[in-house]
Write a structure and sequence with these properties.
The chain contains 19 helices and ten strands. A hairpin with a 2-residue loop joins strand 3 (about 115-120) and strand 4. The strands form two sheets. Strands 3, 4, 5, 6, 7, 8, 9 and 10 form an eight-stranded mixed beta sheet that branches. The radius of gyration is 37 Å and the shape is elongated. The protein has helices at about 45-55, 65-80, 95-110, 135-140, 195-205, 220-235, 245-255, 265-270, 285-295, 300-325, 330, 335-350, 355-365, 370-375, 425-440, 445-455, 460-475, 480-500, 505-520; strands at about 5, 20, 115-120, 120-125, 130, 155-160, 170-180, 185-190, 215, 245. About 45% of the residues lie in helices and about 10% in strands. It starts with a strand and ends in a 23-residue tail after the last helix. The chain has three domains: about 1-55, no CATH class; about 100-330, Nucleotidyltransferase, domain 5, CATH 3.30.420.10; about 370-375 and about 395-520. It is an alpha+beta fold and about 550 residues long.
């Protein structure tokens, strides 16, 4: 171990207390230069050699580098990068425009498309034969969330180089479709090279009218944000459109209860009866396009184009299915009860309560049974679904744990699987939704009869029904003694469940608070409140 020295202080720096070891090894360099590293020259020796010239005089010894060393280093550098020619000069490459033109020609020949060139670049445009596809737009517009009948619809689906919407993901294939009278026309725009993206963006902007609506499948979360990001990267505003209709939330809300998942291929099979044979997987699509850019064959993109073409056509067929099956009042009566219950919730979200009640009445008139659960088709090898029963204990993983919490929060009536779109619709869930809609329509007596029937049943739902029934008697029918009796009956049901080992802390806190308040109020019956009439009582009194 060598001795240490202290470097001189220069310019008031704070390194005067730094102790450096002599003979420290130097930093290792790359392998091509490792032979010229002096093993006996460390960092401390180098600093001492520099400082030694400054102590005695200002003259420095010049560093002489041999010409032979420089030429040897240059030859080794050329050998490491693999010079393609003996002269050391790189081979001339083809211009970017010529490469893009060659890729576009190869792609157009393989896909039977045409090359569209402009000042911004070249793209490949493929258009198939238009198909006859009837849809009643006037009837479709009556469904919740649908645009007016006179607004044009532009269907859009993209195939990308990844699953992110960041700057590194590019949409190399954009499938478009729209109706012309009773025929459905489809056009596909392909990007032969990444440098031609501006031409693709210009062609897309010319295809989307400003007063049209976009129709996508999960396009609000993926396709359209990605396209907007590409326009921003090009420093251009995205195309203007009047609205966006995403079919994925609609399929989830109406049909998820009888499907294993909400993918477009699953919706095709369950709703339209279509089965894709030999379809390319979504995970293969980016790799096929990147292989084409590296000089591979364009034949691998033929299946990708066919996949995108079927995606756009399936979205149009889904709209036609909605118009024929649910928008028609006569055909709606033959729809599955679970679909009608999901449609009623869609109506209720738009405050169209009468249409929602009509759907629930039609669903409750038909026996449901296990019809919805029998239609669920699970993929091979998947575990069976876990049924959420109402009698499951409060510590069961099949239902959220209830550890008390706020005494007045979370005690509202919730049907089993109320927040899960994949939950199977039952007669109980339909009855609960009917009671809520009737209460919102100002018909508390009919809602009370439904809650009375649910309170007479078994399980946790009966306790929740007593809470809702007590609310109606107290606040709507102004019958406090009956409300107190119903709340006490709910406490009796809670006691029975506690003896069985099923605790309900939140429901118990709500009922005890309600019983305490009703016991302190005067035990008198007041007339029922008429909608639109001020209830009698002291001015400023709170019911």
């Amino acid at each position: 171990m060598g001795t240490s020295f202290r470097p001189r202080r220069r310019g008031g720096r704070s390194d005067r207390h730094v102790q450096l070891r002599c003979r420290l090894p130097g930093l290792y360099r790359p392998k091509t230069r490792a032979g010229y590293r002096r093993p006996d020259l460390g960092i401390a020796s180098f600093i001492r050699a520099r400082c030694a010239g400054r102590r005695g005089s200002r003259r420095r010894t010049p560093v002489i580098v041999s010409t032979r060393d420089l030429s040897g280093r240059l030859e080794r550098y050329r050998a490491s990068i693999g010079s393609p020619t003996t002269s050391g000069l790189p081979q001339p490459t083809a211009p970017a425009g010529a490469r893009a033109s060659d890729l576009a020609d190869r792609l157009a020949v393989a896909l039977d498309g045409e090359v569209t060139s402009s000042a911004e670049g070249s793209i490949v445009r493929c258009e198939g034969i238009s198909r006859r596809l009837d849809v009643d737009r006037a009837r479709l517009a009556t469904l919740p969330g649908q645009p007016a009948a006179d607004i044009p619809l532009v269907f859009l689906d993209t195939e990308t180089t990844g699953l992110a919407t960041a700057a590194g993901t590019i949409a190399f294939l954009i499938g478009l479709g729209w109706w012309e009278a009773d025929r459905f026309r489809q056009v596909q725009l392909l990007l032969p090279d990444q440098g031609e993206e501006r031409a693709l963006l210009t062609a897309l902007e010319a295809t989307i009218p400003a007063h049209s609506w976009l129709v996508t499948y999960n396009g609000r979360s993926f396709d359209w944000p990605l396209i907007v990001a590409r326009y921003r990267m090009a420093r251009r505003p995205p195309p203007i459109h009047a609205g966006h209709l995403d079919l994925l939330p609609i399929v989830r809300r109406l049909f998820r209860h009888r499907m294993p998942d909400a993918r477009l291929q699953t919706a095709e099979a369950e709703l339209l009866g279509l089965r894709r044979i030999g379809d390319v997987g979504g995970w293969e699509i980016p790799g096929r396009y990147l292989e084409f850019l590296r000089g591979g064959s364009a034949a691998g993109l033929v299946e990708v184009v066919r996949h995108n073409d079927q995606d756009v056509r399936s979205m149009a067929q889904l709209l036609a299915h909605l118009a024929d099956g649910l928008a028609d009042p006569d055909q709606r009566l033959t729809a599955p009860p679970g679909d009608l219950a999901g449609l009623s919730r869609a109506y209720a979200r738009e405050h169209r309560l009468r249409e929602a009640l009509a759907c629930l009445n039609a669903a409750s008139d038909r026996p449901l049974g296990n019809e919805a659960s029998s239609r669920v088709v699970l993929p091979p090898g998947s575990p069976p679904p876990v049924s959420t029963t109402d009698d499951a204990p409060w510590w069961s993983p099949r239902r959220p744990a209830d550890f008390g919490g706020r005494a007045n929060g979370g005690a509202g009536i919730r049907s089993p699987g109320h927040s899960r779109l994949d939950a199977v619709w039952t007669d109980e869930r339909i009855a609960i939704d009917r009671a809520h809609i009737l209460r919102r329509l100002g018909r508390p007596a009919e809602a009370a009869r439904i809650w009375e029937g649910l309170a007479a049943g078994p399980g946790r739902t009966a306790i929740q029904a007593t809470i809702e029934l007590a609310k109606i008697h107290e606040h709507r029918l102004r019958d406090r003694p009956t409300a107190l009796a119903v709340a006490l009956r709910g406490l009796d049901l809670l006691e029975r469940r506690r003896r069985m080992g099923r605790y309900e802390p939140t429901l118990e806190a709500d009922l005890r608070r309600r019983v305490s308040r009703l016991s302190r109020s005067p035990a008198r019956a007041t007339p029922a409140r008429i909608p639109g009439q001020v209830s009698p009582g002291r001015p400023g009194s709170r019911a």
